[in-house]
Amino acid sequence: MRAFGITKSSARLFLPPFEWYNRQVSAWTAMMNLQLINFTPGTSSNADYTTPDMKNYASSEAILKRMKEYERQDPTGLNGFILLSHIGVAPVRKDKFYNHLEELLEWLKSKGYKMVRIDQLLDRSGS
Fold it and tell me: Distance between CA atoms of 9 and 119, rounded to whole angstroms?
């Protein structure tokens, strides 16, 4: 990150590799004065890394459908959700979910959602 001019003081959030964390990772991030973050479970947004040979494979269409179903069934919808999309996925996954981001964003906007940066979402100062 240093090579790109990103310093520890400007990168206060930590999303663990593979989104895996435990008490040790939680304690480490606290010790480093970082905020541990992760995606909000339930929508399958994170399933865009899967490939057709995996038993948990989810197509982009299935991921979008699951998000819409979750939004429809939850009384608060997707308010405050952190949706995770992987920019880099295996070449064997030809159905790249990031190619559907415009469709997803337009749908979310049509439902009245406002997109905010994650630091704004987590800001507890009220500003």
Answer: 13
Distance CA 66, CA 47 (A): 11
Domain count within the chain: 2
- Same structural domain, 61 and 76: yes
Model pLDDT for residues 86-101, shown as the tens digit of each residue? 988 899 999 999 999 9
**pLDDT category of residue 40 using cuts at 50, 70 and 90:** very high
**Domain identity same for 34 and 55:** no
CB 48 within 8 A of CB 89: yes
Task: Give the closest residue to 17 by CA, choosing from 66, 78, 88.
Answer: 88
**Half-sphere exposure of residue 5: CA atoms within 13 angstroms, side-chain side:** 0
Note the pTM of the prediction, 2 decimals: 0.83
